[in-house]
Specification:
The complex is a heterodimer of chains A (350) and B (490). With 350 residues, chain A is mainly α. Chain A contains 14 helices and no strands. Helices cover 77% and strands 0% of the residues of chain A. In chain A, helix 1 packs across helix 3, helix 4 crosses helix 11 and helix 9 packs across helix 10. Chain A is globular, with a radius of gyration of 21 Å. Chain B is of the alpha/beta class and 490 residues long. Chain B is 30% helix and 28% strand. Chain B is built from 13 helices and 24 strands. In chain B, the strands form 6 sheets. In chain B, strands 13, 14, 15, 16, 17, 18, 20 and 23 form an 8-stranded mixed β-sheet that branches. In chain B, strands 6-7-8-3-9-10 form a 6-stranded mixed β-sheet, sandwiched between helices. A 4-stranded antiparallel β-sheet of chain B has the order 2-1-4-5, covered by helices on one side. In chain B, a hairpin with a 3-residue loop joins strand 13 and strand 14. Chain B is elongated, with a radius of gyration of 31 Å. The chains are: A mainly alpha (350), B alpha/beta (490).
Amino acid sequence: MQKQYIRTYLNNKLLAYVTAAACLFCAMLMGISIGTVSIHPMTIIRVISAEIFPFISLGNTDAMHANIIMNIRLPRVLLAGLVGASLAIAGAAFQGLLRNPLADPYTIGVSSGASLGAVLTLFFGLSIPFAGMFTLPLFSILFSFLTIFAVLLFARNIERSMKVETIILTGIIFSSFLGALISLMIALTGEELRQIIGWLLGSVSMRGWAYINIILPFFIIGAILLLVNSKELNAMSFGEEKAQHIGVDVQKRKMMVLVAGSILTGAAVAVSGTIGFVGLVIPHLTRMLWGPDHRHLLPLSILMGSGFLIIADLVSRTIIAPAELPIGVITALIGAPAFGVILMKRKNKL
Amino acid sequence: MLRVQQVTGGYAGAPVVKNISFEVEKGELFGILGPNGSGKTTLLKMLSGILPHTSGDIVIKGKNLSEYTPKELAKIIAVLPQHSSQAFSYTVKETVSLGRYAHQKGWFQSWSGKDEEAVNRVMEQTGISQFQDDDIQQLSGGERQRVFLAQALAQEPEILLLDEPTNHLDLSYQKELLDLLSVWSKDCGLTVISIFHDLNLAGLYCDRLLLLENGEVNINHVPNEVLKEGRIREVYRTKIEKLPHPRVAAPQMVLVPERSQAESQLEKRIDQASLEVKEDLLVLRSPFPLKTMSSGVTGSGTGWNRIFLNRHVSKNYDCSDHRAEMAEFVREIGFEPGETVGMMTAVYIEDYSSQFYEEDTFSVFVVVTAGVGNAVDASKSEEHSYHLTPGTINTWIFVNGHLTEEAFIQSIMTATEAKTRALYDQEVIDAVTGTIATGTSTDSILIAAAQQGENLEYAGTITPLGKLIGKGVYECTVEAIKKSQSRIKR
């Protein structure tokens, strides 16, 4: 009977992973295929396979198609995927840790902190020795970490129990304040930082492979840090005291989750600017579909988040083609109403 | 199992818990009591390692609390807090399974057969197996509390800490939970330390109680010693009285509500005016309930009653189910048996005798009906065969004063002695033995007190109250005997 139970359990979860992976795969194919030049999915698969396995011949594939895939669309899709994955898993973790289904790197102000870090780096032309191109993400990460600490400290001072609404309000206060600082700096610099404004709205266009190299190591570190804490996140979502009663080393685990969340957010913001609501909508949707258990919620959120952002990017560059919308506009158009619905449902329940 | 030595601590600033020491043995059910803000929850949080203590030692199984890692501690101590928050829709089983966290080993912390078994067992024990796949957010407060109890038990702890565990439970679940805890502590050696709000529950189930007052130990002793009227009144600063539990050797504390000024100043008292004499029924209606101790047919024992009946029945009255018949009768004439003391007599009601006696601060109203057809000498009563006939000397004593339980009993003694003396002086003879009777075979007595006004602690024969009762019962009994005897002569 026990075996039976485990089997149905596994099958259930297996189905979840298969579905989520299939969604991601389709999203990637669509993201690469659709554009001013349409590319047949089979061509995409052939080109990418040939790139990975040199013994597969490209055959009679158009060299221009191969070029578009490998140099323009694939890096763009991968970057969108990684950013989406980072934001979604960070959001899922923040929500579990703060016992707050409305938490998300954007709503609690961490994204703004990361932006400020990035803008400061550009403004002062900062550079960490030997860090090279990682200077910018490192500063973003540092600032997102500082921001989340400040937000939590502030919220706790207002109200010990740290109600959902308090944290969100605090996040809004911090976002506005940090946003104002960024605007101030942009105004002070004149022309050269104007381009930042576009970047701030969030975009994954024209970034190329270099940006993937920047985000990938941080994504791997952050995701692993969170995945090994998924059980602890389950416990902490019942409250820190409860988690400690169950045997979780709360101080240590909480720090790990906060650091990991900051790494993921900071790196995502460093490569793509602030893209809101991915971390809110995706974990929520995933939880609704497959339950709140973080051991599955986190990896499923990665798959769903990357798929979602790839599609959002696709929409942003095709909907008013040839012009492009910032991707943040699309996510906010979907995310903000979702945020409202979640808030409303919570209120009804109380 | 657990030793607390001179522990002080609390939240930043002033210590909430001051210099507390106590020990709990394995298998004990240990209760922590105290008014709000006395430091109960703070103390419990220190025991579970959530709050640090600034001085003193907490030693668990011979090892200092601070030397345990969270996981080690979770295998020994489980906690059921007062409120458990749940932000997400975990299933019941997922929630309970979290309790196994400390037992899972290795990097992947895989779920073993032993974990599965433990989870199924505790769900069975707490009666939540049937909704193991339900969402905990959909459960009722009581069911949820049981889920978290199961989660704590899944830790397979040696010590279970509970913070007012019965808070959200209705009566039957309160009892069920405490019965379970009691069984586990006795049979499985589980040490239970629990905060209680309800003094009575604590007194019923705990082996020992720790009473906290302003963060300090007031007393640490068995329930009977801790739950003393004076102590509880002082610590909780409220009016409270202690009663024995009807079935278990445990004290029960009851609250005494403050009477409104207007009510307590009521100068109403029970006297001749309250008495109504009908053809075959003597009715006394009290404007307010009286505390009574009586041997009537209805309303016997102790209680609170407003209506008092003495009913004439024929000598041939069938006594086979006299209680039910009497209750029926009471209902028929428009009274509620639940607030009525009813007695029966074969004597004609008009032969009753009553008298009002007054002292400075209290008064007594006595009503007697007396027939001596069944007169018995109590010292030789073994010569009588047992049969029940309607009571023949019915004595009612109404006291406009406040009587202690002791005074109630002494009133009965005093009245009985006075009655016996009346029979002696009237030379009432026991027909079987030929000696002077001490009473009749089915006499009834009622002591009813207003429980307002003067506090009358005693009612022995030479106390002020005893004097009135003795005199009153004697005089009324003599008069009533004379009346009924003269009727017989006629």
